[in-house]
Amino acid sequence: MHDVQSKNHPFYETTIETKPIFEGRMIALQVDTVRLPNGETATREIVRHPGAVAVLALVGGKMLVVEQFRKALERVQVEIPAGKLDPGEAPEQAAVRELEEETGYRARSIRHLQTFSTSPGFAEELIHLYFADDLEKGEVHLDEEEFLTCEAITPEQADAYIREGRIYDAKTLLAVHLWRAYRQSGEL
Description:
This protein is of the alpha+beta class. The protein has three helices and ten strands. Helix 2 runs antiparallel to helix 3. The radius of gyration is 19 Å and the shape is elongated.
């Protein structure tokens, strides 16, 4: 078995050239020319992203979610609290910060569940998913350009939101599935 992280893996693509295309507040876009395993060359369009955090937060046996408009999809969605990492910020700190900013709840303790890629075909973004169920009520501190509402939903509401397409994003779908497992086994 080959080490999937290794430059010695037979599928590894060696970067020959990187051409920056765009650099914005949240993302950067570059086009890489790569050498394929068969010796040919190809181009890869890559979105650079600082990473993000998301929190599966439970209060009173219900999951905290926020509803907000997502311009890229032109739709309002229900999602677990989440946000982008600030420069130099540790994921755990960002998770605690985002949870409080968006929901008004402070996590007295938080536990890392999983880190996963969102769109590995073209983006390097990683989401660090955390779990918190030891919460205390604080105050919401939304960013200036952030408009959302927060609610605590039951498992039945989560299932209905999925059926209705209100819960549509991968991180929230994963969180709902993990919550189901947690309710059945008591473990994550």
